[in-house]
């Protein structure tokens, strides 16, 4: 999940998943 989406959804995922 992207940092923005994760924040909105209340998730706590590393930004590495969003990094290209």
Description:
This protein is mainly alpha-helical and 20 residues long. 35% of the residues lie in helices and 0% in strands. The chain is flat and about 15 Å long. The mean pLDDT is 64.
Write the layout of secondary structure elements.
Elements: H1 3-9
- Termini separation comes to 13 Å
SSE string, helices as H and strands as E: H
Number of helices, counting only DSSP H or I runs of 4 residues or more: 1
- Approximately what portion of the residues adopt beta-strand conformation? under 5%
Task: Provide key terms for this protein.
single chain, 20 residues, mainly alpha, 1 helix, 35% helix
Short account of what is shown:
This protein has 20 residues and is mostly helical.
